[in-house]
């Protein structure tokens, strides 16, 4: 006769209570109640001969199914049905469980959980990434926060498409920028796992396939534009900027004149500048990849205006410090990546009105509306290159000579108020 819920509640003696067909409720000395499944399984070593007739031998076995706190009676009965089916098929459930346990332990020892595979992939690829370590930090940070807690300890071969969808869905609409960055990273890690022979079958994180099962990123996320002053406000701003002393004001004016990013300016070292007035930013410091050239990144050459060169001549130097824009508070270091933003927002009162990155937008709008220079020339000045692999493959020039007059005209425009 099957157990009822009241029977389970009243079961307090240290014994086993049968639910029928091999399922038992076991009560321990301390009152802990667990489910177990008992069965007989053939054991050739126990075969005997009785009265001249062979008689098969069996082993009595008991496998624990877990505490009643975590497994309701209906789940225990369903599990018992599965185990009886295995026995009928000639599979010993206990041996099958032990085999799975040994497999997981071996995989963890051999380093094939998802986290172990991911960390090996990052260690292998980080040499190709930015010297400053931002790509490595971004990968490790996003995986540690959103992926490892969910599938980090799971053997990489056991992760399927449904696992990846379950992982991404909670963040796909809440933090879509992070989610859309995670998807290609997961794709690459599983490709690597397959190449190492750690899994077979389809890639569960194939980005092209998964995007069909997830909401369109463009529908759930609108890119946030950087606050930017209009280009006709820049000359007056620069005039006010020149009245300020210190490294940060000079760095900000230099950034405006060159239309480059904060990281590219504050990371500049003296060896990147030559006597001809050319600033060559090494490939590893550039944010944007050039496609189609067979290389991940290429160095970016910047033609410097007279004013930009004059700024370089006025900068203080520090023995043993290679940085062009040095920190005045931390010896041997470059300017903080917050110094220019702090100057703009707090010292000059542009909080909520403009950002440092916004000056690139001002330059781009000026080039489009106030000049006749080709759009492509302005894009190259911003270090934006062709997305089309075929076009980029045949263009081997950075249009440096043609960018010289563009940057000279921009400098003349920017300092028009300051000169007056």
Percent strand: 5-15%
User: What about the largest sheet?
Assistant: 4 strands, antiparallel
Would you state the CATH class of the largest domain? Mainly Alpha
The shape is elongated
SSE arrangement, N to C: HEEEEEEHHHHHHHHHHHHEEHHHHHHH
Low-confidence stretches: 289-296, 387-395
Q: CATH superfamily membership of the largest domain, which one?
A: Intergrase catalytic core
Intertermini distance? 101 Å
State the strand order across the main sheet.
1-2-3-6
Please report the total strand number as a whole number: 8
Number of helices: 20
Look up the CATH topology of the largest domain: hpI Integrase, Chain A
**Total count of domains:** 3
- Percent of residues in helical segments? 40-55%
The average pLDDT is 85
Task: Examine the secondary-structure arrangement and name the CATH architecture of the largest domain.
Answer: Orthogonal Bundle
Radius of gyration: 34 Å
* Helix vs. strand class: alpha+beta
